[in-house]
Every structure is written in C-alpha cells, then in structure tokens.
C-alpha cells in the first residue's frame, strides 16, 4: 500500500485540477484538494450542483472550459454519463501530458470511452462515499482508496496520482494498487449481490417477527434501526467480521451465532452469486443497464414505489415521527 511517505505534493506542484461533477464525490474531492493548497476549477453543467460549487467559492465553469484550463482532470460524474460527457466535453481538450483520472473503472473496463493516446490515465477509487471523505479529512484521517495506472504516457503517472491521493487525504489511511478491471467488477458485485442480500436479510427478519405477532417498531429497532448492527459492522472493518462478535458479543450472542452460522445461506445463494459475477464479467449487466438508462430507469420507479409502500418503511416512518416529535 502507499501512504503519505510515498507521495509528494511536489509531483503536482503548480498544476491545476479540474473536478468534473460537483455531486457526492466531487464536492468532497474539490474541498479537500483546495484545503491541501491545490488550485481547483470545477466543471459542471448549469444545474443545482453548479450553483452549489459557486456558493462554495469555487471557480466554476462549463466542463469543456474547466478541462482546457487544467492539466489534471478528475471525472466524478455517474457512469452512465461518462461516454457523452467525455466525448463531447473532455477528450477534445485533453493535451498530451495531461493526467485523466477516473474514480471508477467502469467506462474503461467496458470500452465506453477511447483513452487519449498522449495523456496519462489513472484510477483513483475511494472505498467510501463523499461525506466521510470530507469529514475524515477534516478530522486528520482519511479513507481507503484503490489506485491503478491505466496508461503511462509521461512516465510520471504513478507519482502524480499518488500526489493527488495525498491531497484528497487517501494516503493518510492507505492506497492499494488494484487493476481497474478488478475494481470495477468488485464494486459491481458488491452492489448487485452483497447489498441486496443484506437488505433482504433485514427485511426477511423483520417480516418473520411481524408475522409472529411482534410490534413492527421494536422489531425494526432490534433488527436494524437502533444502529447497533451498523456499529458492529463499522468496527468489524478494523477488527474482523468474526473477531467483532468474539470481542463485543455476549456468550448468549456468540452461542446463537455459532449455532446457525453457515446454515442459513446454502448452495442456492452461492450459485446465484456466481451467476451475478458471470453477468458482470461477460457484459450482460452493462447491456441491461444501457437499456434501462435509455428508457429512463422505469424499474427504479417501480422499486421505489414498492419499498415505500412496504411494512418495513411504514414502521420506520412511525419511528422517525416519534423522534421528530421530541
């Protein structure tokens, strides 16, 4: 892993960084870079995010103008917008020797953009969303990130991207070299297998309890909404999944865990995980995503309507109403 000692601010001394997109990630990246003494220009279309960047005091321009002004370009917009924005507003203004940085390898892994032959290209993928990136920087710490040199035109790509990582605060925690294709596939697998599996586990536990006659609100609190389980998972990131149960669980808890661990998810779930991973690797997911995006994400609207009408959400609404009435 790379740490602060492995990265020098001198490697981007005097360079201007264009942060393209002032959303969840862009806002945090831009603020951290500025606080580290890096000159930042924000590139964003004319919308509420642009207004936020202006209000936060950034030199904010149309994307093409921001890219033309900078020698380092960070692409921090949603994956589905990469192809159009890159082709129309970024690629024509990248000069030889510029450093083009992606926070997710999706568009390179699936060939959705053509890389500029004379520019450096790197992956810098934080393993955390924007709010903790900013907060931990302010606290004097940082978050984990993956890094990859995709294209090294100048021979200085690694040094430059590590300097960027240091300015954002990632090398305070550690930056791990991971190939961009691997980063993409791991991220998509987490989103399509692990996250829905966890959500289904919480929902199933809640429904079993309600069907068993328990009041929905305390059932929701004990399964999820008290935050106890979330705190255990946060601590497990440092101590280990099994170790946190050993260290923080009572003997009753540990007995219950070992009694059923490995017995609730069988080969059927494992086989589904393998099928999802195959779909990610062979491009089936990207094809489905493209069709969904072209139709303006109709399945997302159906999903949102369904979960908002569900018993778990209604119980959570009741609980929040009580808290808001304190």
Alpha carbon gap, first and last residue = 47 Å
How are helices and strands ordered from N to C? Answer: EHEHEHEHEHEHEHHEHHHHHHHHH
| Cα gyration radius (Å) | 22 Å
Q: What's the CATH C level of the largest domain?
A: Alpha Beta
Shape: globular
Class by SSE composition: alpha/beta
Total beta strand runs: 8
CATH architecture group name of the largest domain: 3-Layer(aba) Sandwich
Please describe what this structure looks like.
- The chain is of the alpha/beta class.
- It folds into 2 domains: 4-177, NAD(P)-binding Rossmann-like Domain (Rossmann fold, 3-Layer(aba) Sandwich); 183-226 and 264-323, no CATH class.
- It is 59% helix and 12% strand.
- The protein has 17 helices and 8 strands.
- An 8-stranded mixed sheet has the order 3-2-1-4-5-6-7-8, with helices on both faces.
- Helix 4 (79-90) links the parallel strand 4 and strand 5 (99-102).
- Helix 9 runs antiparallel to helix 14 (267-281).
- The longest helix is centred in the middle third of the chain and has 32 residues, at 180-211.
- The radius of gyration is 22 Å and the shape is globular.
- The termini are far apart.
- The model has no long low-confidence stretch (mean pLDDT 95).
